[in-house]
Amino acid sequence: MSPADAPIPPIRCYDAARVLAPQRAGIEAAIADVLDSGRFILGAAVERFECEFADHCGRAHAIGVASGSDALELALRALDVGPGDSVVTVANAGGYATHAIRACGARPLYAEVDPATLLLDPVALALLLTQRPRALVLTHLYGRLADVGTVATICAAHGIALVEDCAQAHGARRGGRHAGSFGALGCFSFYPTKNLGALGDGGALVTNDAALAARLRALRQYGWIGKYRVEVGGGRNSRLDELQAAILSVRLRSLDADNAKRRAIIRAYDDALAGCKARPLPGRGGEDDVGHQYVVRCADRNALRAHLAGVGIDSEVHYPVPDHLQPAWRMSLPQMQLPYTERACAEVLSLPCHPALTDVEVRRVIAAVRAHG
Ligand SMILES: *Cc1c(COP(=O)(O)O)cnc(C)c1O
Predict the structure, then answer these.
(1) Is the CB–ligand 1 distance for residue 280 below 6 Å?
(2) How far is ligand 1, taken at its centre, from the CA of residue 193, in Å?
(3) Could you tell me if 163 and 135 are in contact, meaning their C-beta atoms sit under 8 angstroms apart?
(4) 315-344: per-residue pLDDT in tens?
(5) I need a labelling partner for 365 at 20 to 30 A (CA). Which of 89, 133, 139, 273 fits?
(6) What does the pLDDT look like over 172-225, one tens digit per residue?
(7) What's the longest Cα–Cα distance across the chain?
(8) Which domain holds residue 48?
(9) Are residues 277 and 294 in the same domain?
(10) Is 165 in the pocket of ligand 1 (CB under 6 A)?
(11) CATH of residue 155
């Protein structure tokens, strides 16, 4: 087979082996240290990562938990959200907040998104105030900070607890403040494909409130205040483990540089795709955006996706079904309509965007999207 006949390698949305390659030796050493320590649950590695991650976010406390979903649910439990309460969130962000709200026995109230950014529209939040929500889960979708300043002001004026879902936004900054430092609590996931990813499940919460931090430390471990003393109701086992924490300490060292690479890819896509049928979201690639997903909107999204697959380029839909139309949940929300949200779910497509993507690959993706029209 001549080189010209060699199959063109596919371009993946995320390529774990390549993203991890520069840190492989460090990760292996960190794993060996945990093995040598003989301690696998809530030891020195978790404590160390919690300190480092709190520092990175500019918060006093970080609490490691088992997943981003658990972080959201434990956040609401720590804030005493329960049956009879309602919690505002958006319906285009994958359903994670809805799971957490429903797990607490509370009711989700969906706010419409801004039709350009696809992030929560503060005007839509204001329309829901008559329903007296207890809390708001604000998702920094695709890696970009929502209008958190305006939202925080509304929340403060109406006694609504602000929980940030930062599972896609590790390291995003605005006005010198980091994702997770605007609300009462910031929730993070370390699922392997996130900007800060473990080699398995993991999550964390950050806060400046010592009392909330203490409640969360109890909630993640059966509600214990000390060994075998259950003082906080609603607890369970949701611990970050030593191996993942040790790996995350290594991965954290490259987070800012990896985010810079994602931003550069976003700007390259933005420049090259202006005027295409596949429309980029406006205003991306700034400091407040860590490029978790690069999303275009396309009226014939499924045709674009098939065209890309035909030339060996993977793409994904984040997310195809809005929460209020999910089969498991729609019966409880029969009248709900969210036109901007529903339209976005029908049009969005995420292109490959990760820190190990090469310039050649970015150009191949660009050429393929442009060829679609
Ligand atoms: C990934 C993700 C979560 C859930 O995190 P897990 O660790 O998979 O439970 C929550 N919210 C958003 C926005 C996410 O992208």
Answers:
(1) no
(2) 10
(3) yes
(4) 999 999 999 999 999 988 878 899 999 999
(5) 139
(6) 999 999 999 999 999 999 999 999 999 999 999 999 999 999 999 999 999 999
(7) 70
(8) 20-252
(9) yes
(10) yes
(11) 3.40.640.10
